[in-house]
């Protein structure tokens, strides 16, 4: 059964994530580059997020060379795969350049108090959904209109007919295998979901079709909460380590964004719009 974002932990390799899905089609004479170094082959067709990811990686590779962390003979990549030496040098560069202080206990307490749902164990939500998947080249405006229209339609039925309307919409429109089962995902815990999906489900009292679309890395979701089981809030002392890690990650992302803006400001950037990117998240 599909779950919206069962997550796994991986090594902290910088991956720059943006949400724009337009496709870049280079002409015979146009190749995106950083300081004259090509980011792709002439015939490549890349999505805007793929192109920006390559641009950020190349910026960091060149900076590592300037800082003496990587030999100048390291060959740039036009297929998006950096050499092992470049990857190691970039990791060292970020360790040296990014200041990520330990959060204070006061800051940790404030975060814990403001995010109780994230530190509650045992909470479960019975959910079904209709997924409108975001895929490369998809018309986002048309997809959003279809999702919003579906949300309105399933909310317009009275309680005796909602089940039938939702199931029919899921079976005919959803891009998730659960559509064959009326969109049923069953009982989920916080750990079963991608963070952005879980944020909309847990720590709330709403039951029924949510009045707004839920955005996730997979696309747009029409979501119905069929039932809730309350969890147990964990005391601050028992989750202090997790709170500290969360705040350090947030600080790291902010520092990375600022550093990338700094190095991009000194570079000659052609064929890629770095200003259009969302926060370059590190997964």
Provide structural commentary.
With 283 residues, this protein is α+β, with helices and mostly antiparallel strands. It folds into two domains: 23-102 and 241-276, no CATH class; 123-230, Chitinase A, domain 3, CATH 3.10.50. It has seven helices and twelve strands. It has helices spanning 48-66, 84-97, 105-114, 140-156, 162-173, 195-201, 240-265; strands at residues 23-24, 33-34, 37-38, 46-47, 120-121, 124-133, 184-189, 208-209, 214-216, 219-229, 232-233, 269-270. Strands 6, 7, 8, 9 and 10 form a five-stranded antiparallel beta sheet that branches. A hairpin with a 2-residue loop joins strand 9 and strand 10. Helix 1 packs across helix 2, helix 3 crosses helix 7 and helix 4 (140-156) packs antiparallel against helix 5 (162-173). It is flat and about 65 Å long. The model is unreliable at 5-29 and 276-283 (pLDDT under 50).
Short description:
The protein has 283 residues and is α+β, with helices and mostly antiparallel strands.
């Amino acid at each position: 059964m599909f779950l919206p974002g069962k997550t796994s932990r991986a090594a902290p390799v910088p991956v720059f994530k943006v949400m724009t899905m337009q496709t870049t089609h280079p002409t015979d004479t146009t190749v995106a580059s950083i300081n004259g170094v090509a980011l792709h082959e002439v015939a490549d067709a890349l999505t805007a997020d793929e192109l920006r990811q390559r641009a950020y990686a190349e910026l960091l590779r060149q900076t590592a060379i300037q800082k003496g962390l990587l030999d100048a003979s390291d060959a740039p990549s036009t297929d998006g795969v950096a050499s092992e030496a470049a990857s190691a040098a970039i990791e060292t560069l970020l360790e040296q350049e990014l200041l990520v202080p330990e959060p204070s206990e006061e800051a940790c307490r404030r975060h814990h108090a403001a995010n109780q749902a994230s530190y509650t164990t045992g909470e479960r939500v019975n959910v079904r959904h209709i997924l409108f998947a975001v895929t490369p080249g998809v018309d986002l405006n048309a997809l959003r209109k279809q999702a919003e229209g579906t949300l309105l339609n399933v909310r317009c039925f009275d309680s005796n007919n909602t089940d039938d309307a939702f199931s029919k919409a899921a079976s005919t429109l959803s891009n998730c295998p659960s559509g064959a089962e009326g969109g049923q995902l069953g009982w989920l815990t916080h750990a079963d979901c991608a963070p952005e999906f879980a944020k909309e489900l847990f720590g709330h009292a709403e039951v029924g079709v949510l009045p707004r679309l839920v955005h996730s890395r997979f696309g747009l979701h029409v979501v119905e909460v069929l039932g809730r089981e309350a969890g147990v809030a964990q005391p601050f002392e028992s989750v202090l380590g997790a709170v500290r890690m969360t705040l350090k990650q947030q600080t790291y992302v902010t520092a990375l964004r600022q550093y990338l803006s700094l190095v991009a400001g000194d570079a000659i950037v052609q064929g890629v719009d770095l200003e259009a990117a969302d926060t370059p998240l590190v997964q």
